[in-house]
UniProtKB/TrEMBL annotation:
Family to which this protein belongs: Belongs to the AB hydrolase superfamily. Lipase family.
Lipase domain: residues covered: 1-93
GO cellular component: extracellular space
Keyword Secreted: yes
Taxonomic placement: Eukaryota, Metazoa, Ecdysozoa, Arthropoda, Hexapoda
Coiled coil (UniProt feature): none
InterPro entries linked to this entry: AB_hydrolase_fold (IPR029058), Lipase (IPR013818), TAG_lipase (IPR000734)
Protein name (record): Lipase member H
Keywords, alphabetical: Secreted
PANTHER family documented for this protein: LIPASE, LIPASE DOMAIN-CONTAINING PROTEIN-RELATED
Keyword Secreted set for record: yes
Cell compartment(s), UniProt: Secreted
GO terms (BP aspect): lipid catabolic process
Amino acid sequence: LDPAGPLFPRDPTRRLDKNDGVFVDVIHTCANVLGYKDAIGHVDFYPNGGTCFQPGCALLDLTRGTCSHNRAIDFMEESIRGGVFTAYPCKGTSTVPDFDRADESIVMGLNTPITSNGSYCLTTNNASPFALDPNKQKKVTAVHISGPDDQFKSRVYRTFMRRGVDSQMI
């Protein structure tokens, strides 16, 4: 759950890696601050872009991202209690959900299939219940995101999500 980034080297023998278990399932929620950004598991999930700050977390979090870092725990707990987090393959190298590949969607959390592989993206609510119905996810990301490349689109998406926009505002 949001593998630690600070003080952990890039060397896979000294940090979490897909060779550490039969199935390594990673949920990134504070990449580049308290968490690790790169895909390092068999399956890597990037809720709301995977970066700080997760929707519902204060932009000026005095504890430097702990709300976002701990959000991975909230998501897993909700999945254990029955919440269904539908995740889609990420668009290219970005952390934006590719809704055109909905037939390849999987569930994030307790019920992630152990045959899963790759990077998956999804949108969540600002507060519990965090899991969004797939149709609401599409509405949240329906704002036209255009730009020269996937990296630009990912940056726009993360900015949009960081502001805590939910489907009611669209």
